[in-house]
Structures are given as structure tokens and as C-alpha cells.
Design goal:
Mean pLDDT: 95
Helix content: 25-40%
Radius of gyration: 23 Å
Strand content: 15-25%
Distance between the termini: 60 Å
CATH architecture of the largest domain: Alpha-Beta Barrel
Low-confidence stretches: none
Number of strands: 20
Bound molecules: pyridoxal-5'-phosphate
Length: about 425
């Protein structure tokens, strides 16, 4: 099966694995995030197997999708985890993940978060500044622990992603420049409670070519060879090459893990390091959809047609935040979905009309799909937003005091709720006790 077969139209009706989307919505309501467990696992195995030559520790990036049942499914398959906050660490530990499979990134880890991670003996911190290194050293000392660290390098590489998702250019807040890293490594013995384990590079995402990874590793190799002495070199036991591996949002052909591996694995072998990888969206983006119900159709006299649905920017933030394109298509339709989505492009099938699909939130940016050739839909028709498994639910909020959606996991011919829909009561919890009489 290809990725898309896990979300497939059979007799004009969208299925996730062997379950009708319509049946899930009948049970769970709308909007709802729906994930395919077997596609999540297939994607995990695909990236693991592509890099098998260098036996990577795969650390799924929890910020892409942090549902406990998703973490559990991946942990059971052998995955490690990349966390960026104490809250994410709490989730991963709650599921019972072994701490020696957890890495912790982020430019602003607080003392509480560092303490929490040290107390739980996580595998490694990806350190993003000299000040943070000093803080980890101090806290590790006070706890009588060792802080295992990789230095996150900012290699000043343009990964050609959206400005808001690129992280490896020198003006971005992430990582440490080579110069400072070299100083830190030279003086690493000044940090009594730190074990230097390696180097970390994460360039941003999604990265549609292997070039930036190759350039990053070449720079790391040059740095290790030309700047570090023997002792410094020994400290570089691991190289963490981060995440950002792409998947196709629009149906275009994109690189697969084996393509990345073909270019990256030889460099890792030359470096002679163990490797850590932090894929997020590759594993879960295509394994999830957001399904929504059509509330109204509105057609302006000058011709513009709006499809107003019950999901909004608070449920799926990527279009309003990054101009991201998610394919959208009715759940029940006899019009085939085009192979590739070109927003604002050519009209394909005669039965299509140009629409904007919008949510009910009081913001003009609450447009989930702009200028799409779309089949005729009516009130009550369900629409699926595809490739919404990563940075979908995790970026959702309750803006406009909208309860966050439920999350559903499909496995073969059955499905289960893995997060219940929030209630109005949930939304005022934490406030109502302060209401003065
Ligand atoms: C977000 C993030 C990732 C994952 O990026 P994807 O595009 O989801 O693969 C990996 N590593 C770090 C440090 C991140 O911040």
C-alpha cells in the first residue's frame, strides 16, 4: 500500500484503513482528528530501515503529535523521543518510555525543566547556548548527576523552508555557531558535571532536498577534523541530524527516506559517529486527517463562494500561520480527487467550482483552504483536510472559546477515541473557582 491507500476512496466514500470516515463522525462528532495507526508505524519503519546501515536512534519529535496513544504506539515499535519542554517530557515518561531514549532540545530550557530531565536520567540534552550549558552543569552538580549533552550547532545553512520554520541560518535563535562551540569543547573540563556526547544539527522543516543535510554534515566534519583536538574528537560520539524530512502535502512526488539515506549515510560513516534522528512530520503528517462538517454555503453576488465549516484556525493553525497548503476533499463524492493539488491553478473536472473553505473564527485569516477547485458540497457534507497528523492537534487552541476536538485512532477495521472532545466545562476549569460571588 502507498501512504494514500491508508486514506482511500472506495465507492465514492473516504476510508481510513478499513473504517468509513462517515461512521467515525457519526460516533465521535465533528470536527475530529483521525489517525491511521498502521501508517504511523509504516512510516516509522520506513525511515528506520532506510538508515539501517548506521543503526540510528530514531527520536520521534513529540511536538508534531503528542497524544499519549500515539507515543505509546511508537514506543512499542522501538522509537525514542525528542522533547522540547517539561510538558512533553512528562507525557513521554507517563507512557513509560525508557529515559535513555529521550533527547531534549530547545533554546530556553528552564531550571525546573533541566532538573526534571536530570532527575529522570534522560539520554541527552541538545544544548543551545553557553549559558544553558553552565546551568545544566550547576543543576547536575547539585543533584549529583551527570548531564549528557550534544551541542546544537547553527551551521548557517539556508534549508529553503518557510521563513517561520527555518532554524539553521545564523540569524535564527537556534544553536551555537562553530566558533563558540569550539571554545566550549576546548573548555569542556571546566564543566565538572557534563559529559560531552556529540553534536546536534536541526535545520528546519520541511526540507525537500538532501542538500542542506549534506552541507550541514560536511561542515560538521570539517569542524571536527580541523578544529578539535584528539580529546575533543572523542567527545563527538554521536551526531544528531535532527528532523525536517519531508512528506508530500499536495500530492507532488517528494524525496523518500531512502533518498535522504543515500546521500546522508556515507557522510555519517565518514564521521564515524553513532546517529540520532528526530523525524516528526514524516512519521505522522500523512497519517492524520482533520474531518469537518459543512455548516453553511455562502455565495456573494459577485460570485465568490465560501464553504463555511465547523473546523477553524484554532483546530488547524498551519494555513493561517505558515500559508501551509492542506489538500481538502469531500468525504463522500463521485468526483475523483486530483492527483496533485495546485491552489488557484487550472480547473480540472467540469464539476468543480472555485471556493474558499473557511472556519467560524472571527479573524480574516481563518481560511483553511484558499482558491480550491472543489466539488459541489451542501450543508451537512463532511470534508477531510489531509496531511493534518503533524502540527495539527498539537498546535490547536481554544481561541474563541472553542472546545478542542477529539482525536481518534484507527487500527484495521476498528477505531477508538484517544482524546475526548473538550466540553464547555473543561474550558472554564481553572477559572471558575476564582469567580467572586
Ligand atoms: C521540530 C523539530 C524536529 C522535527 O521536525 P519535523 O519537520 O517534524 O521532522 C526535530 N528536531 C527538532 C530540534 C525540532 O525542533
Amino acid at each position: 500500500m502507498t501512504s494514500f491507500d491508508f486514506f482511500e476512496y472506495r465507492d465514492n466514500e473516504l476510508f481510513c484503513e478499513d473504517v468509513k470516515i462517515k461512521d467515525i463522525v457519526k460516533d465521535a462528532g465533528s470536527p475530529a482528528y483521525i489517525y491511521s495507526k498502521n501508517l504511523i508505524l509504516k512510516n516509522y519503519r520506513e525511515i528506520r530501515d532506510a538508515f539501517a546501515d548506521v543503526s540510528p536512534l530514531i527520536c520521534f519529535s513529540v511536538k508534531a503529535n503528542s497524544n499519549l496513544s500515539v507515543i505509546k504506539a511508537l514506543a512499542d515499535a522501538g522509537s525514542g523521543f525528542d522533547v522540547v519542554s517539561g510538558g512533553e517530557l512528562y507525557r513521554v515518561l507517563k507512557v513509560g518510555v525508557s529515559p535513555d531514549k529521550i533527547v531534549f532540545a530547545g533554546v530556553g530550557k528552564t531550571s525546573e525543566e533541566i532538573k526534571y530531565a536530570l532527575e529522570n536520567d534522560i539520554f541527552m540534552f541538545n544544548v543551545e547556548s553557553p549559558a544553558e550549558l553552565a546551568n545544566i552543569d550547576r543543576i547536575a552538580g547539585s543533584l549529583d548527576k551527570r548531564g549528557r549533552i550534544a551541542l546544537r550547532i547553527n551551521p548557517d545553512i539556508d534549508a529553503k523552508t518557510h521563513d517561520k520554520t527555518t532554524t539553521g541560518k545564523k540569524e535564527n535563535k537556534f544553536g551555537i555557531d562553530f566558533e563558540s562551540a569550539s571554545q566550549l569543547i576546548k573548555n569542556i573540563d571546566d564543566y565538572n558535571n557534563i559529559d560531552l556526547k556529540g553534536i546536534h544539527v536541526h535545520l528546519g522543516s520541511p526540507i525537500y532536498s538532501t542538500g542542506p543535510y549534506v552541507q550541514g554534515l560536511e561542515k560538521v566534519y570539517k569542524f571536527v577534523q580541523e578544529t578539535l583536538d584528539e580529546k575533543g574528537k572523542e567527545g563527538i560520539e554521536y551526531v544528531n541530524i535532527g528532523g525536517g524530512y519531508c512528506m508530500s502535502y499536495t500530492g507532488e512526488e517528494v524525496k523518500r527516506p531512502r533518498d535522504y539515506a543515500a546521500d546522508i549515510v556515507p557522510l555519517i560513516k565518514i564521521l564515524g559517529c553513532k546517529v540520532v534522528m528526530e523525524p516528526g512530520r514524516f512519521i505522522i503528517a500523512n497519517a492524520g486527517i482533520l474531518v469537518t462538517n459543512t455548516t453553511y454555503i455562502k455565495i456573494a453576488t459577485w460570485g465568490k463562494k465560501f464553504v463555511i465549516c465547523d473546523a477553524a484556525m484554532n483546530d488547524l493553525a498551519r494555513p493561517s500561520l505558515y500559508d501551509a497548503v492542506h489538500r481538502a476533499w469531500p468525504v463522500n463524492t463521485d468526483v475523483p480527487m486530483p492527483k496533485v493539488e495546485h491552489p488557484g491553478g487550472e480547473k480540472g473536472d467540469d464539476r468543480l467550482e472555485l471556493v474558499d473553505i473557511v472556519g467560524p473564527v472571527c479573524e480574516s485569516s481563518d481560511v483553511l483552504a484558499e482558491k480550491r477547485w472543489f466539488p459541489d458540497v451542501k450543508e451537512g457534507d463532511l470534508i477531510a483536510f489531509f496531511s493534518a497528523g503533524a502540527y495539527g492537534f498539537t498546535m490547536s487552541s481554544s481561541y474563541n472559546t472553542r472546545p478542542r476536538t477529539c482525536e481518534i485512532l484507527v487500527d484495521g477495521d476498528s477505531f477508538s477515541t484517544i482524546r475526548r472532545r473538550e466540553t464547555y466545562e473543561d474550558l472554564i476549569t481553572g477559572e471558575k473557582e476564582f469567580l467572586s460571588a
